[in-house]
Write a structure and sequence with these properties.
Keywords: Amino-acid biosynthesis, Aromatic amino acid biosynthesis, Cytoplasm, Transferase. It contains 13 helices and 24 strands. By secondary structure, it is α/β, with parallel strands linked by helices. It folds into two domains: about 210 residues, Alpha-beta prism (UDP-n-acetylglucosamine1-carboxyvinyl-transferase, Chain), CATH 3.65.10.10; about 200 residues, UDP-n-acetylglucosamine1-carboxyvinyl-transferase, Chain, CATH 3.65.10. Bound molecules: shikimate-3-phosphate.
């Protein structure tokens, strides 16, 4: 697909789609709670639709209306043995969190996904869940799909996570909610806490003490209304576009500002971007606000340590941003990038190099030297939504034509991305 290039300026407002992590969790909690749950601003992207499809196969009634999703939950006990394979598509969040839920259910299920899912590591979840008492089989000792799972009674446990991962933490919290006694998870670094917030929103209890998160088993969750804020990981593409496309000023409305997710804002500030943050005071469980970005003179920065989990999904677009900054940007401590939808160290470095960016892969990240002009060429998303959107923003500042292959992957998290991009192009 030929992508619009050499954009003279981006101006206006965008309402980015609902947060992907929160949308997944709203379906999962709605499905295991008792009573009705309503979800507003739900992200109708491919990944979250996979979550809905899996829960329908588990017997949960879910209605996708125009402006909300309605879930009729009958509690954990209401989930039924699926007669069909649970297909998670491209969604790591769906498969990993679902395993935590299924681990405590006394029935058999089989989980598979697409080609990318088949390469992504699952032992990080299957091993601790086996420790809880679940029976899980899969290719290469339950490292890879297809995964076959027979749940049952679980014993609460204390588990120290070897990696910083909200997916692992969340899967274990779902198991902990069904286990006997207390489950305590110790994180390496603070990761997104949407699961903890949602346990509380559904009337449950969770204790957070520094890097320790504990839940009691046997709690009854009650259906509620979830307002999903806009996804900061989707907003990130327009934040970067606003900063690097000349003559631009973009306001992103109702963007989620949960502090475990706002690393991109910290990086933009460190790079000297002209960014205003206007938080709402609406008392919602998940904070949100408006972000306004203007064309900016950027400088390189260092991104590492505890900042990494707060912007892990934004690294592809940060790499492009860094290519337009004066000086060097170093990204380290980010080996987790290797096990995302693609190996994002390789895909970011290889695709940006094709466009003339001075970027080098390292063992745990990348080094980018700015500032380079973006040249034309043929690039590919490699089936990774965030690589696709990053390359589309690269085209916006290229004087030459760019062809993007596998652009359709973008619908995983941002089905109307191109519509929004085109709506901002000034005459
Ligand atoms: C997610 C957590 C992150 C993130 C993914 C969504 C979640 O993964 O990259 O896109 O919703 O919990 P990890 O927890 O594996 O780092």
């Amino acid at each position: 697909m030929k992508i619009v290039h050499d954009i003279p300026g981006l101006k206006g407002n965008v309402q980015v789609p609902g947060d992907k992590s929160i949308s997944h969790r709203s379906i999962m909690f709605g499905a295991i709670a008792t009573g009705e749950t309503k979800v507003t601003n739900f992200l109708q992207g491919d990944d979250c639709l996979s979550t809905i499809s899996c829960f329908r196969k588990l017997g949960v009634q879910i209605e996708l209306q125009e402006d909300q999703v309605v879930i009729k939950g009958s509690g954990l006990a209401g989930l039924k043995e699926p007669k069909d394979i649970l297909h998670v598509g491209n969604s790591g969040t769906t498969i990993r969190l679902m395993m935590g839920i299924l681990a405590g259910r006394d029935f058999h299920s089989v989980l598979i996904g697409d080609e990318s899912i088949a390469k992504r590591p699952m032992t990080r979840v299957t091993k601790p869940l086996q420790q809880f008492g679940a029976s899980i089989q899969g290719r290469k000792n339950a490292e890879f799909t297809p995964i076959s799972l027979k749940g049952g009674p679980l014993q609460g446990t204390t588990y120290e996570m070897p990696i910083a991962s909200a997916q692992v933490k969340s899967a274990l919290l779902f198991a902990g909610l069904q286990a006997d006694g207390t489950t305590t998870i110790i994180e390496q670094a603070r990761t997104r806490d949407h699961t903890e917030k949602m346990i509380k929103a559904f009337g449950g209890k969770v204790q957070v003490d520094g890097l320790k998160v504990s839940v009691q088993g046997g709690q009854e969750l009650k259906g509620t209304t979830v307002h999903v804020p806009g996804d900061i990981s989707s907003a990130a593409f327009f934040l970067a576009a606003g900063a690097i496309v000349p003559n631009s000023k973009i306001t992103l409305k109702n963007v989620g500002l949960n502090p475990t997710r706002t690393g991109m804002i910290d990086v933009l500030s460190a790079m000297g971007a002209n960014l205003q943050v206007a938080p709402y005071e609406n008392g919602q469980a998940e904070p949100a606000g408006d972000l306004t970005i203007q064309t900016s003179a950027l400088r390189g920065t260092v991104i590492d340590g505890e900042l990494i989990p707060r912007l892990i999904d934004e690294i592809p677009i940060i790499a492009l941003l860094a290519s337009q900054a004066e000086g060097q940007t170093i990204i380290k401590d980010a080996e987790e990038l290797k096990v995302k939808e693609t190996n994002r160290i390789d895909t970011v470095v290889n695709e940006l190099r094709k466009l003339g960016v001075k970027i080098t892969a390292t063992d745990d990240g990348m080094v980018i030297d700015g500032k380079s002009a973006i040249s034309g060429g043929k690039v590919s998303s490699h089936g990774d939504h965030r690589i696709g959107m990053m390359l589309a923003i690269a085209a916006a500042i290229s004087k030459e034509e760019i062809h993007l292959e596998e652009a359709e992957a973008i619908s995983v998290s941002y089905p109307n991305f191109f519509e929004h991009l085109h709506s901002l192009i000034s005459e």
